[in-house]
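ENTRY TYPE: paired fold submission
RECORD: A
CONTENT: sequence, then structure tokens
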Amino acid sequence: MNILVAEDEADIRNLLRYDLSDEGYTVFTAADGAQALSIFQTETIHLLILDVMMPRLDGLSLLRKLREKSTVPVIFLTARSDDVDKVLGLGLGADDYLTKPFSMQELLARVGALLRRNYDYLQAESTRPHTLEYGNLRLDMDSCAVTLDGAPVELGAKEYLLLKFLMEHREHVFTKKQLYNAVWDDGTYYDDNTVMVHISRLRAKLEVDPQNPEYIKTIRGIGYKLHNTGIAR
């Protein structure tokens, strides 16, 4: 794992480099934010330790630039407690902070925890299915595209989200209210007719005979479920 340390105090910078290297990390160091940004753009960095107050480009400004393109974990080193309010209050995307003077053992523990958490997240993302398939239906979650028998199906945003939810929970029966809360995400309001209209639109686009649907079945007195008869068309 590669760690970038951006700290204008040479003693702290060198101490961090020594102790992190001793733990087996590859450490890059920068004396200011501008130098740190340059290193980040040319090297593969898995975690950053940033001082808040640095010349040329301070830690907060650097984080703003990083978050435009990256979710790499960031730990801030702050000189004063009010710096913590800036880091966390502005919501710039810092993952953790330590106030100087700090315990090196605590810093190493937090570095390890953040790297493990980020690694687990990336592993989960890499194994997350990017497509959902059910019968002759295929939904690509990266492009938000739906195909039926290989032909594209043009769906509105809510139609797409409704179909995606049903495909993620195939053969599960949902009430209209459950579908509304899942797709429209509005716990303060519920419109029974909205769900029925969108189900009708989906059937018109997916079914050979919308009055006798193969995919989106009505369960009388309860709601709907995604059901496939297995009939190839």
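RECORD: B
CONTENT: sequence, then structure tokens
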Amino acid sequence: MPTPQRLPIVNSDDGTWGDILRQYLMKEHTNDDTDNAVNGGHQNITITAGTTSKAPITFTSSSASLLSSPTDGALEFDSSSAFYITTGSTRKKVAIYDDASGATGDTYYRDSGGNFVRLGIGSTGQVLKVASGLPAWGSVSSGFATATKTATTYTITSTDTVIFADATSNNVTITLPAAASFTGYRFYVKRIDSAGNTVTIARSGSDTIDGMTSFTLDVQYTAFAVVSNGSAWYIL
């Protein structure tokens, strides 16, 4: 008769207590029948299914439960977040999110507290943009953003597309942003005045513009278009 898969029963298992208890403990505990320090530790863990009143695993909540010296492979819980410690004793937070109101196509991003935040799916035709440092759905622009610049100096930003340079009252220098930070960006500069002052397109830092350090628009209504490849600006 096979040894029962249970704990011994008082007054029912006389003479077989040792065999039953041994089998019960060895199901998940290490034992090589020698005086070995590793014996008794878990060799595997089988977790039975939870119920509506009891979870399979429950961490005791405590603000002091994190290890003072992280140990590789450890799991921790500090009342609000779960952590896993990877090789090198690096504590990594387990990202979790509330999916109670989720929908197909939703996107999740990391907030300032290291948690997942749900961004609901956008509407047809919308594109994912950045607003105040956070992802947000928005409409595709139907045209170019334009701005007229009359000051002596102006540096192009990511919100610019077309710059109208007006040098009626003074020389105007339009400076391109760093090419390394604007890979794939395209900008247009057009001179709209007929004065004798200069309109200069200047580089940022050590960037080049078709190998040059600057470019000049000498004639009214002449235009200039450039694109960055991540290391330099090229005239189109």
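NOTES ON RECORD B: The mean pLDDT is 89. The first helix runs from residue 17 to 26.
STATUS: closed
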